[in-house]
Write a structure and sequence with these properties.
heterodimer; A: 314 residues; B: 484 residues; alpha+beta; five-stranded mixed sheet; globular; DUF403 domain-containing protein (chain A)
């Protein structure tokens, strides 16, 4: 397939995943803003930092971290290239570019997402409508994912798209942890130190895993366990370990299909082997923040390498 | 928006024959079976189907971008559910005329870029070529693979009476609309399957396969084995992008942009995930000017630096051939009957519309005197832009156009306002006649000429309007050619 097409499928998947992750971040932030108005501003700021949009937000709105401003900026500001509306448009543009490689169902699901969001986000979203709009975004993404896994041939194009999805997801989970790591640290340092209930719940909510966590660990709320769950727990579809395994797997499929090993394939294997095999205590001992920073750098390097190996661009 | 003003011209309606000498109100034979079905059909159901069709077009993304709209606003082309029906006999006549015309066009292009016999014989004035912006001196003496210039053409035809067909224009540069022809049929099959069980309509769905075969049959001399065909598009913001991706998809060909291609080892090659792979036939939907920044417009980002040299050396087929656009010139159009006579030795089977060349002082004077009743077009124009429809224009518009025309007469031709035939469209108030034209699609290769039965019927959606171009709000219909 054309390098450009592979790149378009990969970016289409990344942008779709990004829109869904950002919808989750807004959802979690909104919850805190409702329940703890005194910490709302700080929470919105950390949401923006996690989504990598804080710099641009401050250029536009200074320090005015009111719910309405942040939500509108993240949902629909055309001047914000990372707003959900912008991101979904970019997903659709990439889908149009790669259209000959998509099944009709996938294309229509992506196109419908774009049309639906265009309608939902035409005007500023009222607070009481926000949960519905965020749910709609997640639902639309579910449709695209269903069409992808249900109708696409398992050829190189499919694997490039999946690789993009899990790369974006790993990046997102690592960022959430990195922005909140200072909350986790004190409680680890002091045996029996307590972790703020609302805060840990927010972290888990940001990856739609608060119920799964409870189901696994019961009422035992510890920073160590939360970090372990989101980094090393292989059954959790947003954990770093799960995402890395999928990246390795999809790149392995591509390499087999082409009968050609690449540096990107080797890097993905190394990522799983070197960063996700130590127990969680060792990660904390070496510094959680440092660990997450270097993980983010490694995934970024992997993305660049795949782009080169498979000639997404000239 | 153009609005008719009740010009008191009688129109031929293809369903009722109204406006012809025949009995008004009778249903003409090609439409009888359909009309019989329609009479018994519940209007509310058809209304619902119409809305469904629109939603389907949106979801599928069968849209086009209108130039000049901000941020590539995507619009739907209105679709009407009443088919335009052509009898087997009518189609036989039409297709003979179309084939004759396309063969003459191809012979003319070959002549112009080689010995220029037609100019020496004085049948066509030399400056019509030398002043034609689409004339490419670089093509002189160049032999395109298989001798084909017009691989794909669209010949616009209007009907003015029961037996009166005229060619309105020739589109040999990059004719578009074939994807709408195919999607319209697909939509009708989905909406009214029972109709196709009742009425024998000729198939159009094999067009993409015929296109692929026709292009592959024009492979360049240096092609080894099965030819690799690719479609070159300017990209997703081009107004016809849907069509480009649709055709690539249907042919199973790669859809490439300029930045996917490079000249490697004397071949045009595409950048794949596994390295560069050569292309043999490039169906380009990019204008000549943009093909090769090294040899044409240096600021073009759409083309492939060096493709021209590969073409000269027989390393690639470019369809349609560079320089083919001279055939689209409306001043040249007025010479088509002579051109057909010159190369085929026969009279044109399909007549032209009478045309005044504003470059000629006598013609210009007459046109200026009769502006309110004529249609005036730019010679290089397309898409219905920059034209004057005299009877539908205000005094102010006519005065403004008069100044433009006097400033640059050679840029214009004029034609009488044609009484275009009508075909009913479905409205909330029942059937209502609207003006139509027809663009049949023609494929040419060394193995022959293939014309898809029917083509794209464009329809002016507002009452009385004669402008059918989609860029001006026109719609489309499915076109049926009946089996014998």
């Amino acid at each position: 397939m054309l390098g450009k097409t592979a790149g378009s499928l990969y970016w289409m998947a990344r942008y779709l995943e990004r829109s869904e992750n950002n919808a989750r971040l807004i959802d979690a932030g909104f919850r805190i803003a409702l329940t703890r108005s005194n910490t709302a501003e700080a929470e919105w700021r950390s949401v923006l930092v996690t989504a990598g949009q804080d710099g641009r937000f401050r250029q536009a709105h200074d320090e005015d971290y009111s719910s309405q401003r942040v939500v509108d900026f993240m949902l629909r500001d055309p001047a914000n290239p990372s707003s959900i509306l912008s991101v979904v448009k970019q997903a659709r543009d990439n889908a149009r570019t790669a259209r000959t490689y998509l099944t009709r169902e996938v294309w229509e699901a992506v196109n419908t997402s774009w049309m639906t969001l265009g309608t939902l986000l035409k005007r500023q979203v009222r607070e009481d409508d926000l949960p519905d709009v965020l749910a709609a975004i997640r639902r639309q993404n579910g449709q695209v994912r269903g069409a992808l896994t249900g109708t696409m041939l398992r050829n190189d194009g499919f694997h490039f798209a999946q690789f993009g999805t899990f790369l974006e997801r790993a990046d997102n989970t690592a960022r959430i942890l990195d922005v909140k790591y200072y909350l986790l640290l004190p409680s680890v340092a002091h045996i029996g130190g307590s972790i703020d209930n609302v805060q840990w719940e927010t972290i888990l909510r940001s990856v739609s895993a608060h119920r799964a966590y409870r189901w696994l660990y019961g009422a035992e709320i510890s920073a160590l366990k939360i970090a372990e769950f989101l980094i090393l727990y292989r059954q959790m579809p947003r954990s770093l370990a799960f995402c890395c395994e999928r990246m390795e797997e999809h790149l392995a499929h591509i390499q087999r299909g082409y009968d050609d090993e690449t540096e990107a394939g080797r890097m993905a294997a190394a990522l799983c082997r070197d960063r996700l095999s130590a127990p969680i205590q060792a990660i904390f001992d070496g510094g959680l923040h440092e660990y997450l920073r270097s993980f983010l750098a490694a995934t970024a390097a992997l993305a660049r390498q795949a782009e080169r190996d498979y000639r997404f661009v000239e | 928006m153009m609005r008719g003003k009740g010009w008191g011209i009688s129109f031929f309606d293809e369903m009722t024959g109204h406006g012809d000498s025949g009995q008004a109100g009778e249903i003409r034979p090609p439409y009888r079976d359909y009309h019989h079905w329609f009479e018994r059909e519940d209007a509310a159901r058809i209304q619902r189907k119409t809305q469904q069709a629109e939603a389907l077009f949106r979801t599928t993304g069968i849209t086009f971008n209108v130039y000049g709209d901000d941020d590539g606003d995507e619009r739907l082309i209105p679709f009407d559910v009443v088919p335009r029906i052509i009898s087997a006999g009518e189609w036989r006549r039409l297709s003979r005329g179309i084939e004759q015309r396309v063969r003459a066009l191809n012979a003319f292009l070959h002549d112009i870029y080689h010995r220029q016999e037609i100019l020496r014989a004085g049948r066509v004035p030399t400056d019509l070529i030398s002043r034609n912006e689409a004339f490419l001196p670089m093509m002189m003496g160049m032999d395109p693979p298989g001798g084909v210039y017009t691989h794909i053409s669209g010949i616009d035809i209007v009907r003015t009476g029961a037996d009166e067909f005229h060619v309105l224009e020739d589109n040999a540069r990059t004719p578009s609309g074939v994807s709408y022809m195919l999607e319209n049929r697909e939509t009708m099959l989905q909406m009214f399957p029972e109709l196709f069980a009742k009425i024998s309509v000729r198939e159009v769905g094999d067009y993409p396969l015929n296109l692929l075969k026709s292009l592959a049959a024009c492979a360049p001399p240096r092609c080894g084995g099965t030819p690799t065909v690719a479609v070159l598009t300017p990209g997703i913001h081009n107004s016809a992008y849907f069509e480009h991706s649709f055709l690539a998809d249907q042919m199973g060909a790669e859809l490439v942009e300029g930045h996917d291609l490079r000249v490697v080892a004397g071949r045009v090659q595409m950048r794949t995930t596994q390295g560069y792979r050569p292309i043999d036939v490039l169906y380009r939907r990019v204008d000549d000017d943009f093909l090769d920044p090294l040899n044409f417009r240096p600021d073009s980002l759409l083309g492939v630096p060096g493709i021209w040299d590969v073409y000269r050396a027989g390393g690639i087929t470019i369809a349609n051939a560079p320089g083919t656009g001279i055939a689209d010139d409306k001043a040249l159009y007025s010479y088509m009957p002579d051109i057909i006579q010159f190369y085929t030795g026969e009279k044109a089977l399909l007549p032209n519309v009478p045309t005044w060349r504003c470059s000629e002082p006598g013609h210009l004077k007459e046109v200026l005197d009769r502006l309110p009743e004529l249609v005036v077009k730019e010679v290089h124009g397309s898409g219905g832009y920059g034209m004057l429809v005299g009877p539908a224009a205000s005094r102010k518009e006519i005065a403004a156009f008069r100044r433009k025309l006097e400033a640059n007469p050679a840029n214009y031709i004029a034609q009488p306002t044609l009484s275009l035939s009508t075909v009913p469209i479905f409205t909330k108030a029942g059937l209502a006649p609207r003006h139509v034209d027809l663009r049949p699609f023609v494929l040419m290769s060394p193995q022959g000429v293939t014309i898809t039965p029917g083509g794209l019927t464009r329809v002016a959606m507002s009452k009385g309007s004669l402008v059918v171009n989609s860029s001006q709000g026109g719609g489309t219909k499915d076109t049926w050619v009946l089996e014998d």
